Amino acid sequence: MKYEDIPERYRGLWHRAVHGRSRQAAIRLNCLMCCCYQIVEVQNCGITACPLWRYRMGKKPLDAPEADGSEIDAPGRPHATGTNKEGD
Ligand code: SF4
């Protein structure tokens, strides 16, 4: 996919994602690309196993982790305390 392939109305979103380093804009644009830029298809996306599903509307869910990732619980990833579940 090239920049020119992005519909003009979504190029501002692309700039916010790439130059503005907006994570939410990047996820939103990715979901729009996934659904051929059909907003309704993004809204109705039923792929709940997709890791982006909760973020697909370009808004941070109320129960989302903090920006520093301190609430993200993944194997081997240090917790906010500096240790992980495996005790490494
Ligand atoms: S949440 Fe849905 S629309 Fe977004 S990337 Fe995943 S499958 Fe595609």
Distance between the termini: 41 Å
On the 0 to 100 scale, the average pLDDT is 82
Number of helices: 3
Uncertain stretches of 5 or more adjacent residues: 79-88
The fraction of residues assigned to DSSP E strands is under 5%
Number of strands: 0
Any idea what the radius of gyration is? Answer: 16 Å
Bin the helical content.
Answer: 25-40%
Element order, helices and strands?
A: HHH
Instruction: Give the structural class.
Output: mainly alpha
In this structure, how is the largest beta sheet organized? none
Q: What spatial form do the alpha-carbon principal axes imply? A: flat
**What hetero molecules are in the model?**
iron/sulfur cluster
Question: Could you give the topology of this structure?
Answer:
Layout: H1 11-18, H2 23-34, H3 39-43
Helix pairs in contact: 1-2
